[in-house]
Every structure is written in structure tokens, then in C-alpha cells.
Write a structure and sequence with these properties.
- The protein is mainly α.
- It folds into two domains: 6-212, Serine Threonine Protein Phosphatase 5, Tetratricopeptide repeat (Alpha Horseshoe), CATH 1.25.40.10; 218-328, no CATH class.
- Helix content is 60%, strand content 4%.
- The chain has 16 helices and three strands.
- The chain has helices spanning 6-22, 27-40, 44-55, 62-75, 79-92, 97-109, 113-127, 137-152, 159-167, 174-177, 182-185, 191-212, 225-234, 245-261, 274-283, 293-303; strands at residues 218-222, 267-271, 308-309.
- It has a three-stranded mixed sheet with strand order 1-2-3, sandwiched between helices.
- It is globular and about 70 Å long.
Length: 335
Amino acid sequence: MRPDTPADDTTEAERLLRTAGQYPEDREPLLLRAAAHLELAGERERATLLYDDLLASSPVDPLLIRSLKAANLWEYGHEAEARAIIDGVRAARPEQPAPWQIIAETLEAHDELENAEATLTEAARLLVPAEAEDVSYALHSLLTARHRVRRLLALPHDAHDTLADGLHTADVPLDELHDPKRLWALGSSDPAELQAEIVRLRSELGSYRTALSRPFPVAVLHWPERELDELLAAYPELEAEYPTYRAHLTDIEASLRELAQSGTPNLGIVPATVPSYEAFAASESSTPANPDLLPQYATTLAARGRATAWPPLRGAACWCGSGRAYGECHGGTAT
């Protein structure tokens, strides 16, 4: 159930903190979600402590955590510290879109539109690939935010704005959604103008809901070779599922291609480990030898944010860990 009150957000944060203690391998994403709920509950000091705790434990994505910490600090009066963190994140030139967008939207929220636009433009120049089909969901979000800020500044469209327009799929175009003059329509007494604004707002809300409630990926388990050897040694009943490591890799790619051809969205691959699987089986009061448990395990890992999107972007390394490019490995015509 989605929390609706500060008390609900605090309760959800406490639940996530307990879960993080039970699943230390998923500690970072769980604590990030707990911090977000604490912010929604108004417990911003506690959220900052969680961010500090994560930063002290060699996190996977420290720049993301720093950007979230800066946004949180500014909201409860620590502007100078937030600005210093934002400057540091920007100087580090993150290789992922999220930190850039978070610090830019923090600046935007505090009416520093020029700084926000400069930050988003720097990120776009650094991260946006030459081929439009290689734009990830996160980059799409960054380009949309940049489009919005530039409309507020009345800047002319450039190539990245045009790309954002092309990626946008809602009925109402981005130029309308991001038109500053829309705000004036909210005070109109003309029923036709009000109705038109309701349509626009519903479209924008639909886009946000899509972003916030994207389904968990349909995930397929990938057992690295050593983990698979250990799994089959301990639970030979699963040999029918995994006759050989090579067959396992081939089945992963074939299954995902079949799902893609059927129109299934948000496909992903989750790395499996024997200790994690055994812990999951115990939590389900089942035996790891039960093959029916495998898809449930995959779904649970995906729900915890462990899935990697499939297929990899053009030129990216293959998901199998061979070190070769995906197109030269399992992404080729023969797998």
C-alpha cells in the first residue's frame, strides 16, 4: 500500500530499515528508499543521517547519494552545505543521469533556473549518445527536465530539445506541458480554458505516474558459472533446469528475445547467488531444491532493484560477463 500520511511514510521507512538489516546485500537501495520516505514524513534530519551512513560505507553510487543529500539539506535550511555538495557533484561529472537531474531540479526548485539549465546542458553534452535509439529512460527524463527549464527561461529549441520532443509520447506535446503561460489559465473564469487545462494536467500527471510506477522488470535469473556449479552440487534436483552453464546462458537470451517479440516491456536480468537464494527459500519456508521457487526469487530480486535492463545499449558489455560487447557475444544473430 502506498503511504498517504507522514505517519504512514515513517512506518514504511522503519519497515525498509528492518528489511535492510535482513538483506545486507540490498542495503543501499533499501536505505535510499527509507530516506525518501523520511523526507516525505518531514523527518529530514533522520534522512540526512541515513545518507551519511550510506556515504560512510563505500556505496555503489556515491554521487547519487550526495545529490539526494544536497536536495534534502536545502529543504530544511542548510543551503550553504547543499550548494557545496552540488558544486562537488557537478565537478565530478557523473557518468549517470540521475545525480545531474537531482542537483539541477534542486536548483530549479529554488528559482535558480540559469544554474539549473547550465547543469542539465552540461549533462546532456556529456551523456546523450549520438544515436537517438540509445537514449535510456533516465536520459529521457533528464532531457525532459532540461526542456522544461529552457521553456521557463524562454530559450529557443536546440537539438536536445528536439530530441526530447521526439521521445515524448503523451498526447499533449512538451511545449504545451512546459508552457509558463499555462499557469495563467488556472485563474481563468472561462470554462473552455479551464477544461483545456484539466486535459493538459491529466496528461502531465499520467506521465509522472508512468515514471513513478513503472512495473518491475520481467526478470530472468543469471547464475554466474561458479554460483551455478555450487547450486547444482548442493541441489542436483535443479539439473533439469540448468543442464550446463552454456545452455543456461543460451536459454537466458532466447527467453528474453521471445518475451520482447511478444511485446513484454521492461525486461531485465538479475544476478543470482546461492547464499541469497537459500535465504530466500528459508523466508518462503521452502527448500532451494524446489524449481518453482526460481521465478519467485527472480521477481523478488527485481523488486529490490537488482535487475539490469535488457538488452544492453549498443556497444555495452554483454550481460553474461564475458567482457565482450553484447553485439559480438549473446547479442549476435547466433547465440
